[in-house]
Amino acid sequence: MSKIKCQCGHENPFGTVLCEKCGRPQTSEAKESELVDMRYEGAARRSQTYNKSIIDRIWNFFSSVKIGIGIIVAVLVTAAIGTIFPQKFYVPAGTEAELGAYYERIYGFAGKIYYNLGFHDMYNSWWFITLIGMLGTSIIIASVDRVVPLYKSLKKQRTKRHISFMRKQRIYGEGTTENPDDSLDRAAEQLKHLKYSVKVEEGALLAEKNRFSRWGPYINHAGIIIFLLGVLLRGIPGFYVDDQMWIREGDKIAIPGANGYYLESKKFIMETYSKDEAGEVFGEALDRVGMIASNYQTDVALYKEKDNALPGSTELEHVKDYSIIVNKPLKFDGYNVFQMDFRLDELKSMTFQLTEKATDQSFGEFTVDLVDPQRDYKLDNGASVKLLDYYPDFDGMEDGEPKSKSRIPNNPAFIFKMITPNKPDGENSFVAIQKTLESEENDYKVNFLSAETRDISGLTVRKDRTLYILLLGGIIFMIGVVQGSYWHHRRIWIQKGSSNELIIAGHTNKNWFSLKKDLDKVKETAGLPTYEDRQDKESVADEKERGQS
């Protein structure tokens, strides 16, 4: 792009509104306007200068404030939609197929759409992560597009400005004085007393205060970017874990999200209030509810894969024993395992007996492990039982076939084949807790004898290495808020005109009242000419015009 040459001879980058050296307006809009736009000191911004290559168009797209606001609205709307139904962490289902069926069964067609669009795991969905990435890109590009030219302009700003620049400031005044040099000196002393940074050269004075406040919004942006980076890092394995695990007494399972660590449940303990402990107030609650837990905990053993173990080895090293109690989690290697829930008396195994109907002769007992059942059970006198099929959570018949609604043994049912010396081809029997179906011609039957139960602990596994990144982003953001809210960038230009004339101009990004208050003090001390606030003048004129109409 060709440069713009000002009347003062300085060559400005294409797109410059105000000359970098003298401040003359360079565009027709700036020349015709009553007041000049000082947001970016009239510097050329890349987004308003280049629009040829694909990179320019991408840059211009993300530098737009409207696009940034649109992305923020999209993030807020999708986050709000994600709260309509529970996220998958709070759904009592295991596999993805069970999740989809759960949302459709509980919430109908809306739940099915909700699941298919990924709102059930919204914060880990590709489209939400893309929105967060687009928001971060927009903030970075919009900030660089504005802060670089602003920094260059403020760093290179000249003390003496052209009269056209002065006259297009909101605060402006001109008049004669007996001794302009003396007035400049006294003004400089007073402004220094008011904590301004003062520079005087060639009969011109520039007083500046709180320039650092101009960087407040961009420090805000830096804090938001760091915060969004922490959010994105949560999707990388090892940085963030928030998972649930159900562990039965006696089981040893891998801890989800903590590679190489295993947890064994030794025992689940539940303690309840007695009427003597509860007293009169809670005694009524006990009578109404029946049982109130005073404590529940899981005694566990933590194991870790050995560092020098061969690949595929199951050799584990004992780390420690611990009792996980509510609000007293198991802590290791940055992980926290919390006691969150429990289930009492889940069926672990069931014991049956094979007998002959006519004589009640027993051929022995066999026990079916409901978590990992065997296929064949050898009994006495050459008899055996074969487990043909197993339905952990029997839910009736569908099209003449038994069905199970889950893999948890809440209501187990079995199809057994009973093989005896007299019946080498075997006899089939359908055995359930509430119902047993078998042919009347069967000579043998399977009787239920007993069941063994165990308790299950619901644990939550958490690890968050992004917490300090999020905290740092929040602190930096608040620093930017304070910096931009409680300090204001003020500038005062005073320079000599023809003969004994003095010209005054002032600008601030906020709090014009404070700037005028400082100018009044300098005016009284240095004998400066009267100034006017163009904004107030326009407001008064508009009111008069409305009154006349």
Which keywords apply here?
12 helices, alpha+beta
Architecture overview:
This protein is an alpha+beta fold and 549 residues long. It has twelve helices and 24 strands. The longest helix has 31 residues, at 126-156. 25% of the residues are buried.
In brief, what are we looking at here?
With 549 residues, the protein is of the alpha+beta class. Helices cover 34% and strands 32% of the residues.
Low-pLDDT parts are 539-544
Number of strand elements = 24
Provide the helix percentage.
Answer: 25-40%
What's the story with the biggest beta sheet?
A: 6 strands, antiparallel
Calculate the terminal CA-CA distance, rounded to whole Å.
49 Å
Estimate the mean pLDDT confidence: 87
Principal-axis shape equals elongated
How many H/I helical runs? 12
Q: Decide which structural class fits the backbone.
A: alpha+beta
Map the helices and strands.
Layout lengths: L3 E2 L5 E2 L15 H5 L21 H10 L1 H17 L14 H21 L9 H31 L6 H5 L3 E6 L3 H14 L3 E5 L2 E6 L6 H18 L6 E9 L3 E3 L6 E12 L2 H15 L3 E13 L10 E10 L4 E3 L2 E22 L5 E8 L6 E3 L5 E8 L2 E5 L2 E4 L8 E7 L7 E6 L3 E3 L5 E21 L2 H20 L3 E7 L4 E8 L3 H15 L4 E3 H15 L1
Antiparallel strand pairs: 1-2, 3-23, 3-24, 4-5, 5-22, 6-21, 7-8, 8-9, 9-10, 11-12, 12-13, 12-21, 14-15, 15-18, 16-17, 18-19, 19-20, 22-23
Helix pairs in contact: 2-5, 3-5, 5-8, 7-11, 8-10
